[in-house]
Write the structure tokens for this entry.
Amino acid sequence: MPWSDQGGPTGPGGQSPWGQGGGGNPWNARPNGPDLEEALRKGQERLRAMLPGGATGGRPVLLAVLAGFLLWLASGFYIVSTNQVGLNLVFGKFTGKTKEGLNYNWPWPIGSVEKLNVTDFNAIDVGSEMRNARTQVDVPEESLMLTGDENIADVKFRVIWKIDDQKPEAYAFNVYNPPATVKAVAESAMREIVGRSQIQKLLTAERKVIEPAAQDLMQRVLDSYNAGVNIVQVQLLSVDPPASVISAFRDVTAAQQDRDRLKNEAEGYANKVVPEARGQAARIQQEAQAYREQTVAEAKGQASRFDQVYEEYKKAPDVTRQRLYLETMERVLGRVDKVIVDKGAGTGVVPYLPLGDLKAAPAQGAGGQK
């Protein structure tokens, strides 16, 4: 197909491919239509002007483009610190995680890298917040909680947490705002724990029980969210009654302390008296046992002696009878004052012998010499 003098193709009969003779341009059929050939020529001139070196500088341009491409590829190298984990993204999709050191991923805008500090510990306070470096302000809407016995407790606590280094992608992509989520879960879990407790136990004995219970509940809730967060510790900062009734609660606490003190004193007195009473009872029982054994032994001894005397009596009844009489008279008369009268003494001798006076006279004489 030949071209006309104006640069346009012509068909048989001198007609153009658009069915017009004389090599006419269809754009010329419209008075205001653009000149296509002129537009192409101007575009080529502009392209040559933009390229360095003009039409003959194609090779330098290619080298420059290649160098730029290599620099773009090299920008994909990145370094992960020892406390971090890198998350590789390609067109916004997670493709894998990298550990510390030099790593590579597709450069922007194809790929990107998100680095997470997985070994750092984070702290969130519930019930109070730091307005500046030195001022901590109470947040009553967070700290005031309802207890199981329908009292109000002012509970302030701190949650220490970190990113789960085994599932950092869950922390990055499953939760929109992980710190806010951790705080909301912590407040909800603490309200549930406090709602199952009584105010007096919260103020005294159960403070050390609340911390592990709240930590376990928070961890279970966050795991159900697949949040990629590990709860390291829950610290109770303060557990107090509301400010409007704190004086009454202090009086109640003082009364309870007095009650416990008196109870301890009573238990101490009981622990002292009861062992003493038991010791006295044991002593009396042992004395009674000893008296019984002594009495039984004496009775057995007397019975044995009687048997022996009886055996001797059978051998010599008169002698034994006389000896028993004398022994009996000795026991009876040995403890009383006696006067012995001799019937055969006659009239010239004093008919009696005052033995009692004779025994008392030497004792009085001895006392006078002293």
User: Anything to note?
Assistant: The longest helix spans residues 246-315. Confidence is low (pLDDT under 50) at residues 1-33.
